[in-house]
Design brief:
With 348 residues, the protein is of the alpha/beta class. The chain is built from eleven helices and twelve strands. It folds into two domains: 180 residues, Periplasmic binding protein-like II (D-Maltodextrin-Binding Protein, domain 2), CATH 3.40.190; 137 residues, Periplasmic binding protein-like II (D-Maltodextrin-Binding Protein, domain 2, 3-Layer(aba) Sandwich), CATH 3.40.190.10. Helices cover 34% and strands 16% of the residues. The strands form three sheets. Strands 2-1-3-12-4 form a five-stranded mixed beta sheet. Helix 6 links the parallel strand 7 and strand 8.
Length: 348
């Protein structure tokens, strides 16, 4: 493995580990502590990034302005892809990232700044709202008798395991435990284009190391034009029409002809159904989150206004803003507390 591959693998491992920590720490749903201002601050905060998170950001800002009226906000929300670049080019203080950070974005930041960005979870992704970082769900036709799969089985189904250390790839429904006539029926795979953010986070959560997608995956993209069909909808339609199909999508697109499977983790715990409650608690394994990105070294320390604002975002009042916005879901107390510890450790 050359030095470039080692760096990319290290970055991908860091990102995946952070996301898995997000899952493991989310069993509680109590509210985080209330915001208490350490002192009055002033100044301007420039934010670049996700327009889909614009309403949530304004709610954060309006709530903060009531307790810190001397802080001014300047928002430029053109696209999530500008979030990280805005920070490492010095044009933004905060990058509003409406999905998980990509390894190539971490690598770009490191190449400019010499260190990784600080990436803070600020809300849980939605349960079923398109363009609001919804949880991923695994669908099969209603006629398929299977009720659940483990994350390890998902790896063996959707991954390209050429020389798997833990067994062979799962090509048939018999390989995942179905009997009788189902045992020899092939598994047909449907999912988002592999460059899509949904496929990227699925691969980080489910695959190992440099593992790639199963070459049998039928990649589905959004239809062309403003009125083009949504890929999530097309995936569910394809699964509904294929008795041997399995696909990655979201319950927003579900029809009576398909069902979403419960998912268990590699430790063989009880399968967890994809419900609003399990996603809100971060116990469902394919739950997602949204983030704020900032520079955090001693040369570019966050301003006092930024620190206070981020403390507010992670507070009870900030997470109440998430609840009121309605698309995203509030952080659990455990996740919010971990982010606050990250803030407290920053250079002063």
């Amino acid at each position: 493995m050359n030095s470039s591959s080692v760096m990319l693998y290290r970055i991908s491992s860091i990102v995946c580990f952070a996301v898995l920590l997000h899952r493991a720490a989310g069993a509680q749903s109590a509210d985080p502590p209330s915001y208490q201002a350490t002192h009055q601050v002033s100044g301007a905060i420039h934010t670049w990034g996700s327009p889909q998170m614009g309403d949530l950001l304004r709610r954060y800002e309006d709530g903060f302005h009531k307790v810190q009226p001397s802080v001014k906000f300047l928002d430029d929300l053109k696209s999530t892809v500008t979030a990280v670049a805005g920070v490492y080019t010095g044009r933004a203080d905060i990058g509003l990232l409406g999905r998980e950070i990509w390894p190539i974005e971490v690598q770009a930041f490191e190449s400019v700044e010499g260190h990784a960005p600080l990436v803070l979870e600020v809300a849980t992704g939605s349960f079923d709202v398109p363009k609001s970082t919804f949880a991923l769900m695994i669908f099969v036709p209603k006629s398929n008798p299977i009720a659940s799969l483990s994350t390890q089985q998902l790896e063996h189904i959707f991954g390209n395991l050429e020389t798997p250390p833990e067994g062979k790839p799962m090509w048939t429904w018999g390989d995942v435990g179905l009997k009788g006539a189902w045992a020899t029926r092939p598994i047909h795979l449907y999912g988002f284009n592999v460059d899509n953010d949904k496929s990227q986070i699925f691969s980080r959560l489910i695959f190992k190391k440099d593992e790639r997608w199963n070459c049998g995956l039928r990649e589905i993209s959004n239809g062309l034009g403003p009125s083009g069909a949504d890929a999530g909808d097309l995936i569910v339609q394809a699964v509904a029409e294929d008795p041997d199909g399995i696909g990655i999508s979201n319950v927003h697109y579900a029809t009576p002809d398909v069902k979403a499977l419960a998912i268990s983790t590699r430790n063989n715990g009880a399968p967890i159904a994809p419900t609003r409650e399990s996603v809100a608690a971060n116990s469902y394994p394919l739950t997602r989150a949204v983030y704020m990105v900032l520079n955090s070294d001693s040369i570019h320390p966050p301003s006092a206004a930024m620190i206070e604002f981020l403390r507010f975002v992670l507070s009870r009042q900030g997470q109440e803003a998430v609840r009121q916005e309605g698309n995203y879901l509030p952080l659990t107390a455990d996740v919010a507390a971990r982010q606050l510890r990250e803030l407290a450790a920053l250079p002063k």
